[in-house]
Amino acid sequence: MSRSVLIEKIIAEHQTRLSPHLIQLFFVTISETLVTKVLNNVPHDPQVSPIVRAVVGDHAADEALHSVYFRGLFPILWQSLASYEQEEMGQLLPQLIWAFLGSDRQLEYSILRRLGFNANDSEGILEEVYVPSQIAKFVRRTANPTLKMFAAAGVFDDRTIEQVFADYELI
Ligand SMILES: [Fe+2]
Predict the structure, then answer these.
(1) What is the pLDDT of residue 35?
(2) Of the chain's two ends, which shows fewer C-beta atoms within 10 Å, N or C?
(3) Where would I find the beta strands (DSSP E) of the chain?
(4) CA of 32 to the centre of ligand 1 (A)
(5) What spacing in Å lies between the alpha carbon of 90 and ligand 1's midpoint?
(6) 59 C-alpha vs ligand 1 centroid, how far in Å?
(7) How close is the Cα of 60 to the center of ligand 1, in Å?
(8) Separation of CA 127 and ligand 1 centre (Å)
């Protein structure tokens, strides 16, 4: 399932209890506090051509500002929720993290097919590359700044929410 379809699905499943805009705002907050870490490696990678490094470096500087903004916004946003909304949203946050950081198999499959691999080989390659335990480790490590932000805002004070994060292998 592609990333945008996944988000639409999450919104559709919860929109009777949470506003779609609110879910989108939390998704943006997550993506904006995660993305810098991904971008930060490329500008220092000697294997990448200098022009690409410079462009990505500019982008990373921009994203650093977004990250500061959303880091400031999150605790205010969280505190503004009614307790039933915190309960609902808290259970959704791990899914939003996975939607952003988990692999987009459909996209990668279509890239492999376009590179000339047949259906069987493409499936085989994805099977080999995506070892579930390693993906979970990657997602947990990459989500670390966002998870720390959640902890600081008191998201894990609720044991039910904390347990959902554990079920999704994020803590
Ligand atoms: Fe951004």
Answers:
(1) 65
(2) N
(3) none
(4) 5
(5) 23
(6) 8
(7) 9
(8) 31
- φ, ψ for residue 81, nearest 5 deg: -80, 145
Tens of pLDDT, residues 13-70? 988 889 999 999 999 999 899 866 567 788 888 998 999 999 988 988 888 888 899 9
Per-residue pLDDT reduced to its tens digit, 112-147: 999 999 999 999 998 888 888 888 888 998 899 999
Distance 67 CA to ligand 1 centre (A): 7
**Side-chain half-sphere of 140: how many Cα atoms within 13 Å?**
13
**CA angle, 76 as apex, 73 and 81 as ends, to 5°?**
125
Please name the residue that has the structure tokens 């690409």.
52
Domain residue spans of the chain:
3-102+144-165
3-102+144-165 under CATH 3.40.50.2000, yes or no = no
> How remote is the CA of residue 115 from the centroid of ligand 1, in Å?
30
- Give dist(CA 20, CA 106) in Å, integer: 24
How far apart (Å, rounded) are the C-alpha atoms in residues 29 and 38? 15
- In 3-state terms, what secondary structure has residue 35? helix
| Cβ neighbourhood burial of 27 (10 Å; 0-12, 13-18, 19+) | buried
Question: What's the pLDDT score for residue 62?
Answer: 87
CA of 66 to the centre of ligand 1 (A): 5
